[in-house]
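Internal ticket - ligand job 516, NAP:
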Amino acid sequence: MTNKIISTNREWDLVIYGATGDAGSAIAMYVANNFDTYEKKNKKNDSTSRFRWAIAGRNERKLLQLRSRIIVGRLKPSSNDEIGIIIADSSSIDDMSNMAKSTRLVISAVGPYTTLGESIYSACAMNGTHYVDITGEVDWVYSMREKYSKKAKETGSTLCSFAGYDCVPCDITMHLARSVLLASSASSSSHTANQKDDASTTSTIHFTSAETVTQVNGGAMPKGTIRTMISKLPEGAAFLKKLIRYAGGGSSGGSDSGGNTRGKCSKTTRSLIQWLLPRWSSEFGAFTLPHFMGWCNIPVIHNSYCSSVAKTTEEEEGGGDSNSMIIDCIYHDRVAVPFSQGCFGTGYGLLQTLIVYTILLIGTPLFLCFQIFVAFVPSTAVILLKLFDSLQYSGNTQQNQKQLEDSTVEVYTYATSSEGTKAVVHMFVNGDPGIKCTAMLAAETSFSMLSLEDKNKLPKGRIGSPSMIVGDELVKRLQNEETMSGCCTLSVISVVDNKNQNTTKDYIESSSKKDS
Ligand SMILES: NC(=O)c1ccc[n+]([C@@H]2O[C@H](COP(=O)([O-])OP(=O)(O)OC[C@H]3O[C@@H](n4cnc5c(N)ncnc54)[C@H](OP(=O)(O)O)[C@@H]3O)[C@@H](O)[C@H]2O)c1
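stdout (structure tokens):
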């Protein structure tokens, strides 16, 4: 494993590529309002070491307009108004390579990734540049990982995908649940070891149940998400196959350099089948439907948690923590029927579930027929895309800012370990999923990566989801009340250790001792 340090002398710390799009412009605005939370923590606030960032895209006029909008519209006045502009088109290898060489990290919001994403991904892998994207295209990430993992290891580039609403809320709440379950296991095994006077405290435990229930209130569909859905229409079965293979690790190994790939794929397949069914989520206490991003979250979670805890560079090189916790169960990714929590007795939620499934029963065969038609006549997808583009649709306009800001995302993750300990983690985000929440999560993932690199703790050459790359650092940032200022909260609601009857109080006491 290489431990190459990306030069801090590069012109930019961060470049937002695709900054003129719905998601890209929201990321740029978030960065403008919040880069000081990274800068304050990591750098001396003098002119030579201040945060240097740029917005990039193919259209100079739009970029100039965006820069003016950011400077006028940002919430906090800043002395750092120097936002660079980079003109780069994804079809130009030179543009991509020059941009990658000029910065420590690129956030790419240019999609659909399957058609437009590879040139910047490849340029980052080749030039040892760190990379973050907000894709949900698991099949594309699977192909990129197969193609570039060797190169990334050679150059030290760390490539982090799924850093938006797909898949951070599930990924990071599962990460926090895993941390507390491991902490609880370690404390009970050291207790047992003390009793037996045995020095060995390492253990391997696994998840025996894992479920995420999401409640989304409001929002608007980003333009790129609709374009991605249309462009995926011709792929059909090949797409499904890659979803499942991604979870298994693929030939490059992904997060998992060994292990039972077939078993993992079968758990993912079973999770995807169960995802399609209605469910009474007993821990949450409500009827739940398949979460609309479950097809993406399920393989990503199975991949992120199919091997041991994401290790830091030192651990990878020097052994490090040998505790591990893998997912060896069905992962449920659900969305709650609104206002149905605690209504099992009255059956409230059941009626809505039946209505949704009736629509699905009628709609699915029609959709499948259409999909088969598009598979045989792929130009249909191209015509649909042109039609859609002619509508001048945008999900992130000046007019709908209030609607986006008034939306909320709330996530509960329930996980049980093979030792019988149960953890409940809660995350709340102020803002709609596709634009505001995605912007905050992509920017915070990037700040976490830069911050770990400053401390020489970023795992180099790794490809994966945010939890695999910056899990603990991202949790720390999202839990910081001062810097998040109400925009996001992330907390452990309860940890109940069935054997020792320790509770949340014990966990909180032990973790605050650890922090101090
Ligand atoms: N994870 C999530 O929850 C989440 C949320 C939102 C979006 N996404 C994904 O993120 C991607 C972007 O979404 P969006 O809604 O922001 O899309 P969008 O509004 O259509 O923006 C696309 C961006 O890509 C740029 N672009 C297109 N072709 C290009 C080329 N050849 N070279 C350089 N730049 C090019 C566009 O530039 P112009 O302005 O010049 O056209 C624009 O900046 C999509 O794949 C979407 O699925 C994910």
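Auto-summary: The first helix runs from residue 22 to 42. The chain has a mean pLDDT of 84.
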